[in-house]
Write a structure and sequence with these properties.
With 135 residues, the protein is an alpha+beta fold. It has one domain. The protein is built from four helices and five strands; from the N terminus they run αβαβαβββα. A hairpin with a 5-residue loop joins strand 4 and strand 5. It is globular and about 45 Å long.
Length: 135
């Protein structure tokens, strides 16, 4: 996966499936642990991962570390909306070109509400407060 532009559609299809799987895992955890704090009250902050590293964290791992990146935060928020608020939100994937010739894509995951508006838990929890922290 992710071997250039010609592989982008297949890669993004797989990535979308993985996002739903993380949302489902988080929803299962929240149902089993209703005492879990809501995302924005948890104390967990946004932190980009080191270049070349990509760990996907479920809610308990994000809570234990105290930091998470965009897919972790967005999927937690989606699961929270499903389980606690009955809102049929979805993970939303966007990208921008990266690399000297734009040959790679830098993905960012947010939350899409049923009415179409977009919520960005990463921004709420600290992304963009220092240079180079997007992703």
């Amino acid at each position: 996966m992710f071997h250039g532009r010609e592989d982008a559609a297949r890669s993004e299809h797989v990535l979308h499936g993985l996002l739903f799987a993380l949302c489902a895992a988080d929803a299962s955890y929240l149902r089993a642990h209703p005492e879990t704090p809501r995302l924005y009250e948890s104390g967990v902050r946004y932190q980009a991962e080191l270049p070349g590293r990509e760990d996907w964290q479920t809610v308990p791992f994000a809570l234990a570390r105290g930091v998470a990146d965009c897919e972790d935060l967005a999927c937690w928020r989606v699961a929270e909306l499903w389980v606690r608020d009955g809102v049929r939100a979805l993970p939303r994937m966007t990208w921008r070109p990266k690399g000297p010739r734009g040959q790679w894509r830098l993905y960012h995951i947010t939350v899409r509400w049923p009415d179409g508006h977009v919520e960005d838990p990463s921004r709420v929890l600290g992304m963009g407060r220092r240079r180079g922290s997007e992703g």
